[in-house]
Amino acid sequence: MSTDTMATKTPPGTQINPKNVTITPLNSQISFSYNATSVKPLPPLVQVSFSPDGNLQISNIVFIAASENAVITSVYQESVISDEGTTQLDFFIDYDAPEESFQTFNAFRVDFVIQNPPSDLQQIETYLWDEDPVGSRGTITVIDGKGSN
């Protein structure tokens, strides 16, 4: 992802059909002991597997600053070439929350399926993207054939 992309409010790529995205509040929080001043989102935790019919199944745990107004709005997908020159899919979990530093974060699970992923897919990179816009650093997940990761 280029740094120029960070200057736009909407994430790059194409929005994944909302019917193919499941967002589940996990009713849990994490808190950090030290007073951080950064407003940069935390990177997501990502698990990838393939369904029996070859679809890419992606499950993410994201942590969003504890705020009554924080809402996950959509997920975007972009096909890119990685720094290593291999096929990569980038995903942007888009949300909107106040741009403030927090020590406490609410957990959400964001699941989606990509039908007919590229046959030469080597890795995915997933970002949490605040509409302000501020993006997390990406979480790179290596794809191991048609097995699970």
Structure, explained:
The protein is built from no helices and 10 strands. With 149 residues, it is mainly β. It has one domain. The strands form 2 sheets. Strands 1, 5, 6, 8, 9 and 10 form a 6-stranded mixed beta sheet that branches. The protein is globular and about 45 Å long. Residues 2-6 have low confidence and may be disordered.
- Percent range for β-strand residues: over 45%
Tally of individual domains: 1
Our measurement of the CA-to-CA distance between the termini, rounded to an integer number of angstroms, reads 23 Å
What is the alpha-carbon Rg in Å?
15 Å
The residue ranges in which pLDDT falls below 50 over 5 or more consecutive positions are 2-6
Mean pLDDT: 85
The percent range for helix content is under 10%
DSSP summary: helix tally = 0
What is the H-and-E element order? Answer: EEEEEEEEEE
Query: Could you describe the largest sheet, including whether it forms a barrel?
Result: 6 strands, mixed
Structural class: mainly beta
Rough outline: globular
Tell me the total number of β-strands: 10
Characteristics:
disordered N terminus; six-stranded mixed β-sheet; four-stranded antiparallel β-sheet; 149 residues; 10 strands; globular
